[in-house]
Amino acid sequence: MPSHVFADRPDRPQEHGAVDALISQTRRLRGEVDAVRREAGADHSDPAGRWQRALCELAVHQLNDLHGHLAQLRDGPPRTHAPDTGPARPEPQHGSLLSRVGSAEWNLLTDEATWSGELFQILGRDPAAPPLSLDELPSLVHPDDQPMLTVMVTDCLIDGKPIDGEFRVVRPDGGVRQVHMMGEPVLAPDGSTASMWAVLRDVSELRRSQCVVRETRDSLQRQRHIAQTEHRLAVELQEAVLPPWRGSLRFPHGGSANLDLAAHYLPSSSTALIGGDWYDALELAEGRTLLSVGDLTGHGVTVTSGMAMLLGALRGMAVAGTGPGRLMGWLNQLLDASMQPALGSAVCCLYDAKEHTLTWAQAGHPAPLLFRDGTGRALTPPDGVLLGATSGAAYEQAEERLRPGDLLLLHTDGLVPRRSREAATQRLLTLAPRFAEARAAQDCVRIAVEEFGVAPREDDACLLVAKVEA
């Protein structure tokens, strides 16, 4: 009996024109997808990159299968494994699609079984051995999948249901392959089942590729969830520690009438992670006010918690009467002794309203900018290295006398995007005429944000403005 696998079309090659065009399109698309896969890079530490590469590899795998299917459609049906006096057909290349698709027919009237050569290769059987009968076929199947195969074959032979399912095959060499089987019964003239045909496809590589896609997708989702959780925690911690981001700063008990304060925080536009930038204003005894800004390197919850630790220590020591230079020294020791070492910069200013003096120290940080009578200048910085850079470092202090109407601007690196520290200082100083026309510190903050807050920035930044009242 001829094979029913290809009973619906003549045993001759298809017209080549349309099929060859599809083969060319598939080959071109496969090359384009492969180019995208190469562009994804080879950074195995990046979950998104792993997921992209896995999807591309799955797409290439499926396009390879499509290419093979179309080639088989062009070349016509494969020869079944039966005695043949004609010339032998070349064996399909190992690993090609044709080597992963085989066909079979079991004749129930004669008890004959006919297998294609590819099916012997898929199942790991010797082509010289006789094909297995339907009763013998389950012996090749994994024990856990044998009941499923038995049910599919029984439903096909008795109820005429088509076969469409997958099971694992244990090859003689111990290898396990995933096989997809599709088949139908062939009816005799009297309506009884005369035979059953089936096409079996080795889908092991396809299933492995799909598994990699699922695993990388799940890994990417976990990484995103972790990043979102860390971002939320960092934001909550930052909001709990820093004064309000917008508007004029108000001390709990009304504060000194000698300073008008305002501040603003500008997040990075290139990352969703929160950095370690901070600003603070603290009312102290005897008409003194502590102003500070700083920045810890890095992003995320760890850096934000380190910023909170430094800010808490800074406030505590300031309340105890520690001067700015000594404050920087203690903060340096605190970072140096931390379980998670980090580097940071900071500037700390102590304003005495009675004496109209500003005593300040810095640790590798931009100097405060003083604006007076429509002009501006950077204060000359005393010596001070980055926090956490050197154990036991000493920090000098400097003193500046302020006048009513003076404006003091403290900021972190990154306030002026894509500029060096010197260039950023010069850009800020050009705002002096506009600051001179501003009536309040909040107006000055708004001017700076309008000037520098729109452009994309790689890092977060903050600024603190203090205007000396009469």
TrEMBL record:
Gene3D superfamilies tied to this protein: 2.10.70.100, PAS domain, PPM-type phosphatase domain
Hydrolase in keyword set: yes
Name the UniProt record assigns to this protein: SpoIIE family protein phosphatase
Domain PAC: residue ranges: 163-215
Organism superkingdom: Bacteria
Region described as Disordered: spans on this chain: 70-96
Key words, A-Z: Hydrolase
PROSITE patterns noted in UniProt: PAC (PS50113)
